[in-house]
TrEMBL record:
This is Extracellular small neutral protease. Gene3D superfamilies: Collagenase (Catalytic Domain) (3.40.390.10). GO terms for molecular function: metalloendopeptidase activity; zinc ion binding. Disulfide bonds join 178-191. Its main location: secreted. It is an enzyme of class 3 (hydrolase). One of its GO terms (cellular component) is extracellular region. It comes from Streptomyces seoulensis. Its EC number is 3.4.24.77.
Amino acid sequence: MTSSRTSSKTVRSLLALGLGVAAAAFGAAAPASAQPEPVAAPHAGYTGSAREAADSKAFFDAVLKSVAEQRAENPSLKAVTVYYNASQAPSFRSQISSSTSIWNSSVSNVKLASTTGTGNFSYREGNDSRGSYASTDGHGRGYVFLDYAQNQQYDSVRVTAHETGHVLGLPDHYSGPCSELMSGGGPGTSCTNRYPNATERSRVNQLWANGLAKALAKVNQDR
Ligand SMILES: [Zn+2]
């Protein structure tokens, strides 16, 4: 439901802010608006190469855009909650629940919550030779894909928490140690660490504190 008091100008302002935050998060040299729309659905995998950094940024842009729209519709909301729909990933119900608990106990400025509605992103499951990844569906909606085979090979909660890290704005860092969540499959199948390290937690908190505080101020200013 869109409030009649929410102008399209407000939404555009929020989106511009959001994209600026995303560019800062991924260290992009060029403004996000100067980059062309991706043609194929981008993905940031659990294992892969650094070239996928742009893909995880595109995914985060989609999530942030959705959160900004949600907040523009109800600007009085103080807490930043990112909603997910897990109905298309029934086999991973417990892993998704664990990932949510891990992130909600690790960061304070953004929270994850389940919804049966559309949500800001969704989880899906299936078989894909690319493994698990965070992607966009071509209509600007973000989703986390969980691959059956890869989740047998690697610690499944770590895979889920890693992909959810992209939702919160973290890029891949495959060369990192097992103590980093965003090193993904880099440290190998024996790595079972399911928690973000202090640097990763701090990065998420800073990202959501700055971005959404500014977004909220902008909403109040435009009213
Ligand atoms: Zn990844």
